[in-house]
# Entry
Amino acid sequence: MTAEARTRERTRRDVAAPAVLGAIVAGATAYVALVDPNSPGHYLTCPLLLLTGLECPGCGALRATHDLAHLDLAGAWSMNPLWVVLAPTLVLMWGWWMARAWTGRPVRPLPVPVAWVGLGVLVVFGVLRNVPALSGWLGPAA
Amino acid sequence: MTQPPGPDGSPERPGPHRAEDQPPQGQPPQDQPPHGQAYPQGYPASDAAGVPPYAAAPPGYGYAPTPYPRNDLAVWSLVLGIASYVLSCGLFTGIPAVIVGYKARGAVQAGEANNGGMATAGIILGWVAIGLSVAAVVLLVLFVPAFLYTVGSTIPDQP
# Structure
């Protein structure tokens, strides 16, 4: 098999995963951009928030996505600052994955320290945004 | 053949520190038999043959090569599994936890990883989180229709 044919075969097989994931995420983002989460009646409510009033690290991410899709960075930041940092990073990482899969080169997950540091950031963010003094900065805007 | 005692009297052991024994053997001490000279020649050959995984390790991120290059998959599965409980909506990290966990298991079977237990933990955490999320959606839809459409209006007033 020629190198060209090998690359073509790899391209078909490996591109499927990032392509499908990208299509799903793009569709979901388009839906969120069109249907405003700020107005009640379109999305499920979060059980944790409803039952306990606690804001998990993802609270406000849906509204932040809506604001990001409308390029309202300030509004998105007031909803979930961590998500405003994380969402474009994830998009860039997906782009890298897609590019590597297209050219048939292997791609590895991020190094292990990133995983544990990321989990720590998530937990600390989740705790801090529920502290009353910081909830104005880190929590979703009312 | 028994190991001759080293220059400081401690028993000789094959190991990296043997390289430090080389200079003293320029003048072998009284209790070093002549076959001590054979060790320097014999050691490098056995070194190269004794640790093939290091020679065969693929180039990585610049880390030192390890015999288990795909251990990172199971760690990511576990971290994503834990994160699906930190977040109240476990679906978004639970599904990747399960997918990566199964890939980690495949890597263990291929001999590229040795943390199958961690992979299993990530898979279990992921499935349970997915199950809880689905159950929460079902319960919300079936039993609490009054609570369904309240996003945006249930945020407690911030002080």
In short: The CA atoms of residues 139 and 145 of chain B lie 9 Å apart. The first helix of chain B runs from residue 18 to 21.
